[in-house]
C-alpha cells in the first residue's frame, strides 16, 4: 500500500456525528458544513461505505448495520478514505485542494459503527447529538408511517413491505409487532449500542451536544463545538438556525402520534433505563 493510500494521508481528524435516528443530526450537520475548509461526501456517504466488499448488510446476512473494529481492515480503511476523498466537497461545492482534509460525515447508521470508524480512523472524533427520547420516538413513528424512509424493501423475514431507518441488532424479534413496539425496540437497540460504544472510547475522542441547547443558543453552541473540533468559523448564524425540513408538525402528524400514544405509554417503562443512561451521558 502506498503512503498516499494511507487514511491518515487523506483525512485529518474526521468528525462523525452520531445520534439516535431522527434526532436532528441533519440540522447540526448542515450548520457545521458552513465552516470553512470542512468537507463532506453529502447524502452519498452511506453508499460509499456500503459499496465496499463485505460491508453491505446483504453480505452480512441482513443481520444489522452494525460494524465492528475487526471490519476496519487496513485495506477497507484505505478504500473508504479514498472514496471520501473522491466525493468530498466543501460548503461552496469545491473539492479538497490539498491532503489531508477535514471530513464531516453523518448517517444514522453510524450510531452502530463507532468501533469500526474509530479503528479505521484513529484520529476520528465523534459528536453525540442528544435529544429527548420522547421527541425522537415521535419522529421515528412519523418516519415509518410516512413511507418515505424505506431503507430496505422486501427485507427477508420481515412481514411489512419495507424497513425504515437503520437496521438494528435483533430486528427480527420485532416482526409482527405493532408499529410503536417496532419503533421503541429500534430506538432502544440503537441507543444502547451507541452509548456503550462511546463510553468505550477515550474521553477526548467524543463530545456531546444537546439538541435543545443547540436550538436555544445556536451561535454559542456552534462556537463551543467548533473550538473543540478545531474548526474555523466565519459566517455568523444571523437569525439562528432554521427548523429542520419535515420537523414542522402537521395535523396529520399529530394524528399519527395520537393513534400510537397509548402504546408508547405502555412501552415507556421498558425504555426508561436507556433513556436515563442517555440523559446522564448528556449531562442531564
Automatic annotation (TrEMBL):
Query: Source organism's superkingdom?
Result: Bacteria
Question: EC number(s) on record?
Answer: 2.8.2.-
**Keyword annotations for this protein?**
Transferase
A Pfam family of this chain = Sulfotransfer_3
Q: Name the SUPFAM superfamilies on file.
A: P-loop containing nucleoside triphosphate hydrolases
Q: Any coiled-coil ranges, and where?
A: none
EC main group: transferase
Record carries keyword Transferase: yes
For this chain, one GO molecular function annotation is: transferase activity
Provide the transmembrane region boundaries: none
* Name the record gives this protein: Sulfotransferase family protein
Species annotation: Lysobacter koreensis
Amino acid at each position: 500500500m502506498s503512503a498516499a493510500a494511507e487514511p491518515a494521508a487523506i483525512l485529518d481528524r474526521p468528525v462523525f456525528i452520531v445520534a439516535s435516528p431522527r434526532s436532528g443530526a441533519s440540522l447540526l450537520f448542515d450548520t457545521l458544513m458552513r465552516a470553512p475548509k470542512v468537507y463532506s461526501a453529502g447524502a452519498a456517504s452511506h453508499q460509499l461505505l456500503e459499496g465496499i466488499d463485505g460491508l453491505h448488510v446483504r453480505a452480512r446476512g441482513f443481520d444489522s448495520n452494525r460494524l465492528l473494529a475487526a471490519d476496519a481492515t487496513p485495506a477497507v480503511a484505505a478504500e473508504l478514505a479514498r472514496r471520501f476523498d473522491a466525493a468530498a466537497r466543501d460548503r461552496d461545492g469545491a473539492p479538497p485542494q490539498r491532503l489531508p482534509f477535514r471530513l464531516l460525515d453523518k448517517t444514522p447508521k453510524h450510531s452502530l459503527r463507532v468501533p469500526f470508524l474509530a479503528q479505521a480512523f484513529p484520529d476520528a472524533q465523534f459528536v453525540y447529538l442528544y435529544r429527548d427520547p420522547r421527541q425522537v420516538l415521535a419522529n421515528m413513528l412519523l418516519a415509518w408511517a410516512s413511507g418515505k424512509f424505506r431503507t430496505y424493501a422486501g427485507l427477508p423475514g420481515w412481514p411489512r413491505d419495507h424497513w425504515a431507518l437503520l437496521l438494528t441488532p435483533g430486528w427480527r424479534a420485532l416482526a409482527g409487532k405493532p408499529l410503536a413496539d417496532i419503533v421503541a425496540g429500534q430506538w432502544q437497540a440503537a441507543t444502547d449500542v451507541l452509548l456503550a460504544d462511546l463510553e468505550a472510547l477515550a474521553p477526548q475522542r467524543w463530545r456531546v451536544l444537546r439538541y435543545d441547547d443547540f436550538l436555544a443558543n445556536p451561535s454559542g453552541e456552534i462556537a463551543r463545538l467548533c473550538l473543540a473540533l478545531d474548526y474555523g468559523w466565519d459566517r455568523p448564524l444571523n437569525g439562528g438556525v432554521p427548523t429542520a425540513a419535515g420537523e414542522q408538525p402537521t395535523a396529520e402528524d399529530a394524528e399519527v402520534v395520537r393513534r400510537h400514544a397509548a402504546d408508547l405509554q405502555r412501552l415507556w417503562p421498558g425504555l426508561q433505563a436507556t433513556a436515563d443512561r442517555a440523559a446522564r451521558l448528556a449531562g442531564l
